[in-house]
Amino acid sequence: MCRVIDMNDILERSLLYDFYGELLTDRQKKVYQAVVFDDLSPSEVAEEEGISRQGVHDMVRRCEKLLQGYEDKLGLVARFSQTKDLVAQIRQQAELFRKTGDVSCVSRIEHISMEIGEL
Amino acid sequence: MCRVIDMNDILERSLLYDFYGELLTDRQKKVYQAVVFDDLSPSEVAEEEGISRQGVHDMVRRCEKLLQGYEDKLGLVARFSQTKDLVAQIRQQAELFRKTGDVSCVSRIEHISMEIGEL
After folding, report:
1. Nearest residue of chain B to residue A20 (CA atoms)
2. pTM of the model
3. Which residues of B64-100 are buried (b: 16+ CB within 10 A; e: fewer)?
4. Domain ranges in chain A?
5. A88-112 pLDDT, tens per residue?
6. CB neighbour list of residue A109: distance below 8 Å, 6 or more residues apart
7. pLDDT single digits (tens) B11-40
8. Could you tell me if the ipTM is greater than 0.95?
9. What's the CATH number of domain B7-74, 1.10.10.10, 2.60.40.420, 3.10.580.10, 3.90.780.10?
10. From A4, A85, B67, B75, which residue has the greatest number of CB atoms within 10 Å?
């Protein structure tokens, strides 16, 4: 079977699961992990769990909807990602300072760190 | 009435509400905000909402339990606080560099920013 793998999609799913996965039931977690992260086929998971392929499919869809619902309400993945992006900028400025000795890099670091404080 | 105000407690409640408040119902949010943040008495809120003082008290307790439950499961307030603490350290190092010109501050900034990347 040919699957088109979208890395952004995988990253997005990983982040949502990393942030909100613990709000799923143990069964939901087990099935979702198996299909989405361990890349098992719905048939394999269905057999293991003693439910239908459709049941597996529905459970994965339901989990996706729940996880996305939490993010829609709380926006914590977005908030954390913004912070991480700004921290990456700080690291870049520190590296640039090391290479060039340009002190304005450190001013920018101070500025960015204050921006993060306001998030 | 004399109330002992614990600032850490207020901060903790604010953070929990800031992170997970949107998972409460509109009614829960309204009552919780009125009592906890607007500092209205349970009697005032009870009258406004048309419920008993005990009802208000129970709802506030229930909200606290829910918010703390989300944090116990997800730990996102703790994760975010760790990040903020490290960012504050970056800001301090940048200020120290501005005052002393000590380039080791920038190495420390680079180190801390990598630490944040691993959170």
Report:
1. B74
2. 0.85
3. eebbeebbeebebbeebeebeebbebbbbbbebbeee
4. 7-74, 77-117
5. 999 999 999 999 999 999 999 999 9
6. A90, A93, A94, B90, B94, B106, B109
7. 889 999 999 999 999 999 999 999 999 989
8. no
9. 1.10.10.10
10. B67
